[in-house]
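so my prof wants the structure for this chain in the tokens format not the other one, which i didnt know existed until like an hour ago. anyway here's the sequence
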Amino acid sequence: MAPTFPRYRGKWRHRSLVDPKEFVRRYQPDFRAPPRCVIVWNRRLAERMVERFGGRNAASLAATNVLRRRGATVGLVFPRGVGAPTTITLLEELFAAGGREFVGVGLAGAVSPELAPGDIVVCDGAVRDEGTSHHYAPAHVPAHPSPTLRRWLEQALDDAGLPFRAGPSWTTDAPYRETLPELRHYRARGVLTVEMEASAMFLFGRARRARVASVLVISDRLTERGWDPRFHEASDRLDAVAAAVLAASLRPTSGRTSRVGSRRVGSRESDRRRSPRPGDRSRSTS
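here's what i got, hopefully its the right format
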């Protein structure tokens, strides 16, 4: 038999024996997730945003805080760890508890030489080089965010005056196995970033009919000479992006979408101006 992944061919056609709704019912019976949840993979970032916006801890599924303002509600969630398996386990539980929109705010390595630490990328697709998404859809299915939620996300950044690019990411389970041939391969195909969750998040959204989007801040670079870590240069911009997403989510009109992208830089739809660099900070946080 020819090898396949997952090992059982066509498994995505079959119902799971383990139901996340049953898990939530048994172990978090009083928890109701907000309709929109913002996922961050940096504990100190989560703490700073809770301090800034207020909120109460609502569940032990993860560090899940509920933020409220003028009748609007959003969840701020810090997973147990990084990577696709941990993140999708959490999203399944949040979905079972009532979450329907998920926005990832994390860090990424730069694949494109045009990106600098602190630059912002809205992910418009992802290479499925991780294992989790293949349990949700066949290998030929592309990984894309929700168009509606992506437009909303771009508007939130635009309203906050944060320049960004839109482009695809390479999602991998193995950050210590990123090789030079892969870098050249994906760079030649227009991939901008590398991270650990986006493709699985998008295919989870497709399978569950949830809206999912992702925005990334460059924290390090892959180059012909090797790895260039610059995490300290991403901190201020990561805070600004998280704050923009949360503030937009807490506006009473946060569910509406509108024209976006007047501040988009370097994307196919706009000019090639570079976004300004930020101050300071911590890719394992996406």
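also thought this was worth mentioning. The beta strands are 36-40, 56-59, 63-69, 72-78, 101-110, 120-129, 165-172, 193-195, 211-223, 226-229.
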